[in-house]
Amino acid sequence: MTVFDRVKELANKQSISIVELEEKLGFGRNSLYSWKKKTPNGDRLTKVADFFGVSTDYLLGRTNDKTALSPKEIEDIGQMADRMINGLESENSVNFYGEPMSDEDKASLKTALLVALEMNKKRSKQKD
Fold first, then answer.
1. pLDDT tens track for 67-117
2. Phi and psi of 99, rounded to 5°?
3. Structural fold of domain 3-60
4. Every domain of the chain and the residues it spans
5. 66 touches 24 (CB < 8 A)
6. Torsion (CA) 81, 83, 84, 88 in degrees, nearest 10
């Protein structure tokens, strides 16, 4: 399946034509059709992936997981987890059995938060 085939499939699921998609994204007419034979540049590929809420890896056929997270989504989740941990620390409420948490325990908690946030983001993408 080519990049174009995947884009066409996603467009069909949203009941829009390739021409409409090109217009919405500000692409030239028939530019997406060229993807039948060549790989698009990164910027355009990212723009299409963001429009459909899928990863560029999905469009390129590297994965069949439409809910794979983009690097930006992963970065956003990391920042959210950092804010959550920092918020807990600033309130002196990060305790483990009544004792302040060690740096190792905080790192473990952050890892657990990252996993939970990523799972939640993927579930929300599946609903779309």
1. 777 777 888 888 888 887 777 666 556 666 677 777 787 788 888 888 888
2. -110, 150
3. 434 Repressor (Amino-terminal Domain) (1.10.260)
4. 3-60, 71-126
5. no
6. 140
